[in-house]
Specification:
With 272 residues, this protein is an alpha/beta fold. Strand 2 and strand 3 form a beta hairpin. The chain has helices at residues 46-49, 61-75, 94-101, 113-121, 155-165, 181-189, 194-197, 209-218, 241-256, and strands spanning 13-19, 22-27, 33-37, 84-88, 105-109, 126-127, 140-146, 166-178, 205-206, 222-226, 260-267. The protein binds zinc ion.
Length: 272
């Protein structure tokens, strides 16, 4: 059955993988990939998935340094402190903390109660619930989404809300992985690898450069510019021998099917 592409709305989509009740479809038009859950598959519960087990919440010194470097090289030249920053999907608040240190006025938003609790314990201002309620329209100078849009059920809606919350000429800074041919090849050869390689069932969207640019354009953003990107997370640490062997094997496959990254800044126009 053909499904409508959630980004460009084309009907020209095809299924390229099916694994244990999860199907991944890809749009022929904008090359966007998206996961669909069969009725037999229980959709993962957000609060359970983004609990303390979630990799984004662990203490990762590599990430802490990388995010500071990110602020120095990519954020400070674009917007000077004490600009108001909203971080959507703030996780354990590492970026909020670093942005605050750099002099920005920060607010974090997350759907995960575990994330909000960690941020509050670190004294960081955060909110959950309805994104539209975090502040009034046009109240942020910059909104960031670090490796977040692939996990959203409705990325378009979230970016429309971000647009609403940004002031005119405010910036959206976004970083995401891009699905490439190497990953698709690996998943075709061994569909089970879709779990570690494509991070299903948590990852719901598999952007292409084209689908990401379409999405930003459709939400009203302009002047899309590519920012230099570097690796943000260190490899997860494994403990037991079995886990380490499994980890080594996965790393070899991941090194081949490494995801491409797109790191982008774009602007809400002055008049809209
Ligand atoms: Zn499409």
């Amino acid at each position: 059955m053909q499904m409508q592409c959630p980004i460009c709305e084309s009907q020209e989509t095809r299924r390229f993988a099916a694994i244990r009740g999860i199907e991944i479809h890809r749009c022929r038009h904008c090359e966007h990939g998206f996961a669909l859950f069969s009725q037999h598959y229980e959709e993962p519960k957000i609060q359970e998935m983004y609990s303390l087990e979630f990799s984004g919440y662990r203490n990762d010194p590599y990430y802490q340094n990388a995010i500071r470097e990110e602020i120095r090289t990519n954020i400070l030249p674009l917007v000077t402190p004490p600009a108001r920053v909203l971080d959507i999907g703030c996780g354990n608040g590492e970026f909020l903390l670093a942005a605050q240190e750099a002099g920005y006025t920060v607010l974090g938003y997350d759907v995960s109660q575990a994330a909000l609790t960690i941020c509050e314990s670190r004294g960081l201002p955060v909110q959950g619930g309805d994104l539209m309620q975090v502040s009034s329209a046009g109240s942020f100078d910059i909104i960031t989404l670090w490796n977040v849009i692939i996990y959203l059920s409705e990325p378009r809606r979230t970016l429309q809300q971000a647009y609403h919350l940004l002031r005119p000429v405010g910036l959206l800074v976004l970083r995401t992985s891009i699905l490439n041919r190497r990953e698709m090849r690996v998943v075709r050869v061994c569909p089970r690898l879709a779990f570690p390689i494509l991070q299903i069932p948590s990852q719901l969207h598999f952007f292409s450069e084209s689908s990401l640019e379409q999405l930003l354009g459709r939400c009203g953003f302009q002047q899309v510019q590519r920012l230099p990107s570097r690796r943000l997370h260190s490899q997860p640490r494994r403990t037991s021998l079995k886990r380490r062997l499994k980890g080594q094997c996965l790393r070899t496959i991941r090194a081949y099917a490494r995801a491409d990254v797109m790191h982008i800044a774009c602007q809400k126009p002055a008049h809209h």
